Amino acid sequence: xxxxxxxxxxxxxxxxxxxxxxxxxxxxxxxxxxxxxxxxxxxxxxxxxxxxxxxxxxxxxxxxxxxxxxxxxxxxxxxxxxxxxxxxxxxxxxxxxxxxxxxxxxxxxxxxxxxxxxxxxxxxxxxxxxxxxxxxxxxxxxxxxxxxxxxxxxxxxxxxxxxxxxxxxxxxxxx
Amino acid sequence: xxxxxxxxxxxxxxxxxxxxxxxxxxxxxxxxxxxxxxxxxxxxxxxxxxxxxxxxxxxxxxxxxxxxxxxxxxxxxxxxxxxxxxxxxxxxxxxxxxxxxxxxxxxxxxxxxxxxxxxxx
Lengths: 175, 121
Description:
The structure holds two protein chains of two kinds.
Chain A: E1 19-22, E2 28-34, H1 39-47, H2 63-73, E3 79-85, E4 88-97, E5 103-109, H3 118-132, E6 137-142, H4 147-155, E7 159-162, E8 168-173
Parallel strand pairs in A: 5-6
Antiparallel strand pairs in A: 1-2, 2-3, 3-4, 4-5, 6-8, 7-8
Helix pairs in contact in A: 1-2
Chain B: E1 2-7, H1 11-27, E2 30-36, H2 44-58, E3 63-67, H3 71-81, E4 86-90, E5 93-94, E6 100-101, H4 104-112, E7 116-120
Parallel strand pairs in B: 1-2, 1-4, 2-3, 4-7
Antiparallel strand pairs in B: 5-6
């Protein structure tokens, strides 16, 4: 997955966590940076994740696979942001380094909390945290039919970087 | 059953080979391995020797063939012209985040083959 094209110009600064806001359903939500210390809270969230919202094989379904997957992702180098409601994790966004000095992005929000603006705030917080830590290049893949996700990524400054595989690939330059 | 496995030498292709050999042993399948020339992966000589090594380790007899030209279409073409009943390909690589990425060969074979295709995971 090298040869990816990034936008020439970096995007503006994103808000940096911690952040708090009221979501579309009137729930108080906090966006905070997170790390491997929060693994149990993340396992809880992924155990409650709707299998219909999975993409390209992630998140895994059973608990031991979820733990194995999170173990591989929650390293010193990855950047993690969570959305909290009433002390529980309801959303998680992550940047994982690839082998080309860039980061792959993914975001997950529990079904009951979707459509309330949490994903947008999570992504802004994640990209803000990425800028704080000096991340320059970020990419992701998204299913071609997932128009709402594509629209959201475009709003955040992502541009299509490869349209020739199964999934659409998009990229952004943070700094 | 006559089975045709195609791989360009990526790790998922070699995993698929091991699984296919296991099944072939149980079912008495006749296996042919096609070495695909996918520019992204290692050179075909090296791929072929890795395949032969794996077959040796598994102590299984299979014909190994080289395919040149567009890998997906040549694999589909070979399966049709020589009466293979099933095509086997690797299940894709994982991104840094663990997402499964299907390659160009897998996409072409799945959409264009006129017989069953097994994607090994």
